[in-house]
Amino acid sequence: MERMEPGALPEVAADAESPDVWGFADTAFRVLPNGSVVLTGSRYPLCGAELADLLPWMQEQIGIELRPADTRESGYPTRIPEARENPALLRALRELLPEEAISTAPELRLRHGHGHTLDEMWAIKFGAVSRVPDLVVFPQREEDVEALVAAAARHGACLIPYGGGTNVTNALACPERETRSIISVDMRRLGRILWIDPANQMACIQAGAVGRHIAAQLAEHGFTLGHEPDSIEFSTLGGWIATHASGMKKNRYGNIEDLVLDMNVVTAQGAFSRSAVTPRESVGSDARRWLFGSEGGLGIVTRAVVKIFPLPEVQRYDAILFPDFARGLAFLHDLTRQSTPAASVRLMDNLQFQLGQALKPRAAGFRALLRAAQRFYVTRLRGFDAQRMAACTLLFEGGRGEVRRQRRAALRIARRHGGMGAGEENGRRGYQLTFGIAYIRDFVMRHHILAESFETSAPWSEALSICEGVKRRIRAEYRARQLPGHPFITCRITQLYHTGVCIYFYFAFHCKGVANADAVFAELERAARDEILRRGGSLSHHHGVGKIRQRFLGRVLEPAALAWAADLKRAVDPGNVFAAGNFAAHAERQPGPQPEPDRTQARAGRAE
Amino acid sequence: MERMEPGALPEVAADAESPDVWGFADTAFRVLPNGSVVLTGSRYPLCGAELADLLPWMQEQIGIELRPADTRESGYPTRIPEARENPALLRALRELLPEEAISTAPELRLRHGHGHTLDEMWAIKFGAVSRVPDLVVFPQREEDVEALVAAAARHGACLIPYGGGTNVTNALACPERETRSIISVDMRRLGRILWIDPANQMACIQAGAVGRHIAAQLAEHGFTLGHEPDSIEFSTLGGWIATHASGMKKNRYGNIEDLVLDMNVVTAQGAFSRSAVTPRESVGSDARRWLFGSEGGLGIVTRAVVKIFPLPEVQRYDAILFPDFARGLAFLHDLTRQSTPAASVRLMDNLQFQLGQALKPRAAGFRALLRAAQRFYVTRLRGFDAQRMAACTLLFEGGRGEVRRQRRAALRIARRHGGMGAGEENGRRGYQLTFGIAYIRDFVMRHHILAESFETSAPWSEALSICEGVKRRIRAEYRARQLPGHPFITCRITQLYHTGVCIYFYFAFHCKGVANADAVFAELERAARDEILRRGGSLSHHHGVGKIRQRFLGRVLEPAALAWAADLKRAVDPGNVFAAGNFAAHAERQPGPQPEPDRTQARAGRAE
C-alpha cells in the first residue's frame, strides 16, 4: 500500500462562519411569535423543530420571567482599536506574501483577537476590546511561517497563531502592554492532508486543517483520526496540540498526545522537521512534547504526523437512565474497572437531562401518548424521580462482536446500579445535541442570560464531591450577592480514565439589572474554580490555561515548576516572538523585544 | 477504601548483586567438566539444568572451536581512579547524612561509575575506567536530595543519580573533563511504596524502589504496576522515568509515560512536589513531562504517583511457530490491526529460536522420543524448515473471557499466516528464559566472545527491511575486516504499536586475536545503528541515548531541536549540577561551575 496524497478540500461558500457569535452564519436560535424556539438552517438534526418547552423550562429554572421581546441587542462590532502602523514591517510582509494574504481589515483583526470565553463575547457585543492584532496574515506554505518569524524579529513584531478561534481561555487576547506590532498568523490555508500511509496507519496533516475537513477527507479514504472535541467543526489540528486537547471518543482513540507521533514546528531558533517517524522512541527529553499545552507561546506547529484508524465496522448509540447522579457515577467507575468502555460515555446530571427534554419538540397525537406512557413507566413503575434521575449516553465503535460485548457489559453493570436501558434513539439524540447546543450561549445572551462552560478532571474518589461542592458554592455565592432569581448550574461527566474522570459544568444566570454583570460572572466562575481546586480537581482537563486561569497556576504548580516553564520560554524564545499562550504573564512583564542574551559562547560550543 | 501505607521491604542478604557481572551474586553460567553448561543457583527455572547443546551450538554458529579451558580471566577491578579530595564538601555532606551513608570505598565508586554496555563491562575487567565518582552517597529522605543539590552547588561538585546501574547507554560514565567532585547519588534507600490508593488505583512510590520489590509489594495488596522491563529485577522507578522505559507487557499496561501520573523532582531551582494528582490535565507545557528521557541531566526524580491495576484473573502463556520470520511479522501486523494483542507478544527469528532450543537440557528416554516426534511433525509433515522457522511467544493477562477471546483471535490470525500452535509450555519457557539469558553475556565474554544487545523502533513497513538489512550490514562489515569465524546476529520483535514495532538485536563475535576488540565491536555496533537510521528506524526505542548514542543525535534531531534541549538544560540547571544524561555533550564542554547568569530581574518579575 503506497502513500496517498489527497487533494485540497475546496472552500464551501455556504460554510461561512459568524464573526460575532458561535458557529456557522446560517445557524442560530430564534424565538417564534408563538414563543417557541427554533434553530435555523438545516445543518443539525435539531434544526427546524419548534421547541415549545424551552423558554418555559428555562424560566422555571432561573426563576425569572423571560419575555421574548425583552432583548439586549448586540452592538457588534462595538469599537475596533486602530491598527498600529509599522510600514517597514508591512513592506517586509509584502515581500513574503501576496497582497491578499495580508489584511488590516478591522473586523478581521477583531475576530482574530478573541476566542469564545464569556467575557470576550460580552466585550465584542456590549463592551470593548482594548487591543487586537494589527495585522492578520495567511501563510500558504510552511516556509512562510519561518519567514514570518524572521520578519517579526527584524521589524519589532510578535506573532500569535490563530487556528479556529474557538478557545475558551482568552488565549487570543492580545497582551495589553505589548508595544510591538501584533501579527495574527491565521493557519487555515495550511489545511491539507499531505499524505495518508495506509500500511502504517499514519497521516501527515497541516496544522491549520479544521477538524470537520480532516474527518471528511480521511473518511473518503476509509480512515478516521478519532479525535472529536466538541469544537471539531471549527478547531484545528494545531490548536488541538497547543491546547492539549481531548476528544469525546478518547476511550477508543486516545487524546491528542496519544495521537500525535511527530510534528514540525517553527521556533524562534529555526524549524523542527524530521523525516523518519517511528512508533515510540527514547531520544532524550523530547522537545516536540513540550509543545503540547504551549498555547502558541513556544512556536507554531505547521504539520503533524498522526495515527489514523480504519472507520469502525459498527457505530451504535445507547442510553441508560439512573435513579440519580451518584448511582450513574458508580456505574461509570465499575464500567471503567470491569470492562472496555464505549468510545464515548457521558453522564448528565438531572438538570442537564431536563435540558435535553426541553430541547425536544412537543409531541402530539400518538407520539405524545407514547411519551407519556414511557414517562409513566419510568417515574411510577420503576420509581425514578423525574427531579433526580440522571442519563448516560454511550457511543460504541468497533467490530460487530466487540461492540456487542461492550454493550452487554455496560447494560449488565448498569443494572447493578439501578440503571435502565433508554434506547438507541435517546443515545443518538444526546450526541446529536452536542453541536446544536453550542449555539445556545449566544442566543440566551440576547435574552440577558450569561452562560459559560468550564471543566476539570479529578480522581474517582473526589468526583462526586466536586460536582456537588461546585453547585453548592455557586448557589451560596449567588445568594450572598443577592443576585436575581436562581443560578443555573449543571454538570456532566464526559471522559473516563483509569484513575478518574473529566467533569464539565455549565453555569448561567439572568443578569438584567446586575451592575457589571460580566465581572460578577467572572467572580462566580473563579469561586467555582477555587472550589474545584480545594476539592482536588485540576485547573483544566483540556481547555487549557490561557489568560483566564493564569491566576490559579501558582495553586497547582510549585514555584520551581513555574520557574522552569518561564526559563524554557526565555531560553527558546528570548525575543518573545511568540507572545501568546500561558507564558503571557512573563511576556506581559517584559513587553517589546528582549535584549538578546550573550549566547555566542554557547552557540559556538554547539557548532564545534 | 482508604489509602494503605505498606511498610518497607527488608533487605534480603541473599539478594547480593555481583559488582563485576550482571545479576545476583549466586547466579552465573559455568562449564561443567563434561562440556555442558549450567546456570548456578536456584533463582530461575533454567538453574541447575545441564545444557549439553549450548557450547556445540554456539561453536557451530560462530565457526570457531570453543575450548572450555581457554578462558580470558577477568582482572576486575583493574584500576580504580583515586577519589578527588574535597574536604569542604565532605564536611558539608557529613552534616547532612550519617557517616555510613557517605562512602569513598573504591569498588563502590567503581560500580557507581558504569552500567552494562559492552565497553563498560570490558573496561572494568580487561581495560580501565578513567574516571569514576569521587563519593557515593545514600540519601534516606527526599529532603536529603534537595540538601545534596545545595551542597554540591556550594562546594564545587556535581551529582549523578544512580538507580539499579543497569543502563546500557554509558549514562553513568563520568564526564572525563569534569574537574569538580562527582557525587553518585544512590537512590535505593528511597525505595518505599509510600501509599496505595485502591479506590483510584494509584500508588505513590519512591524513585529508588527496585522493580522486583515494587512488584512483590503491590502483589501483596492485590495490585500490579504492569511495567516489566527485562531489567525489572534491578532497575528502579526513577531509572525508568529517566530513560523513558518500556516494559514487555506494555500492550496491556502502557509504557512508563502512560503509567506515571505525577512525580516529585529535585531540581537546581527547588523541588517539584504537588498534592493533587488528577487523571489528565491541560496546564501548559508540563515541566514534569520533560523529565522522561532526561537521563539524570535535569534533576533527580524522588517519587512518582503511578497507575496500578488489579492482579489479572488469568495469566496464560502460548507459543506459535511460523514457517519464517516474514510470515511471523505479517501475523503481528494483523494481530495488532484486527484484535487486542496479548499483554506481551514476541517474535524470535530463527537463530534466536535455535538459541532457545540450545538452552534446553538434552532430553532422554520417553521425553527424547516425544521431542523427536514433535520435531518430525513440525519439520516433515508441516513442511517447516528448521533453519528458517520463527517462534512467537505470547503472554495473555486479564479476565477469563478476555484472555480466551484474545487467544482464539491470535490462533485464528496465526493460521492465516501459516502459524502452528506450539503450546503453553513453550510459551512459558520463552518468557522464563528472559532473566536467565541476561547472564550469558558475561559468561561468553570469559570465552572470548563479545556480545551486546541494541534496539530500535520502526514503522511496520520498514521492520523487515531493518531486520534483514542490519544482519546483512553486520556480515558485510565483518567480512570486510576479515574477522575470525562468523558474526552472530539475531533479532526479535518485542513490542507492538499501532504504527510499528520495537526490534531488539543481539550481536556477538569471537574476538580472540582481534586487536582492540572492544573498539572493533563498537565500530560494528555503530555500523548497525547507521543501517537502522538509513532504513527509517529510531535511535532508540527505550534504552535511551546516554553517551553511547550521542554522536547520532544530529541525525535524528534537527539543529533547532538540539538547541532547544541544550537551552533547556542551560536554563534550568545553569550550574550544571546534574552532570549526567544526554545533555552531557553540553556539560563536557563547560566543565566546572558555570557563572550564574543575572537572573535577578527575571526572579523579581516572577515574585511580583
Explain how this protein is built:
Two copies of one chain form a homodimer. Chain A is 36% helix and 18% strand. Chain A has 608 residues and is α+β, with helices and mostly antiparallel strands. In chain A, the strands form five sheets. A seven-stranded antiparallel sheet of chain A has the order 17-14-16-15-19-20-18, sandwiched between helices. In chain A, strands 7-8-12-10-11 form a five-stranded antiparallel sheet. The longest helix of chain A has 21 residues, at 460-480. Chain A is globular and about 75 Å long. The first copy, chain A, starts with 28 loop residues before the first strand and ends with a helix. Residues 584-608 of chain A have low confidence and may be disordered. At the A-B interface, β11, β13, β18, β20 and α19 of A face β11, β13, β18, β20 and α19 of B.
Offer a concise description of the structure.
Two copies of one chain form a homodimer. With 608 residues, chain A is of the alpha+beta class.
* SS strand fraction of chain A: 15-25%
Rough outline of chain A: globular
Helical residues, percent of chain A: 25-40%
Number of helices of chain A: 21
In this structure, how is the largest beta sheet of chain A organized? Answer: 7 strands, antiparallel
What does the oligomeric state look like here? homodimer
- Could you list the spans of chain A in which at least 5 consecutive residues all have pLDDT below 50? 584-608
Span from first to last CA of chain A?
A: 43 Å
Give Rg of chain A in angstroms.
25 Å
Within the largest sheet of chain A, what's the order of strands? 17-14-16-15-19-20-18
What's the total number of strands of chain A?
Answer: 20
Task: Give the mean pLDDT of chain A.
Answer: 92
Largest interface: A-B, 96 and 96 residues
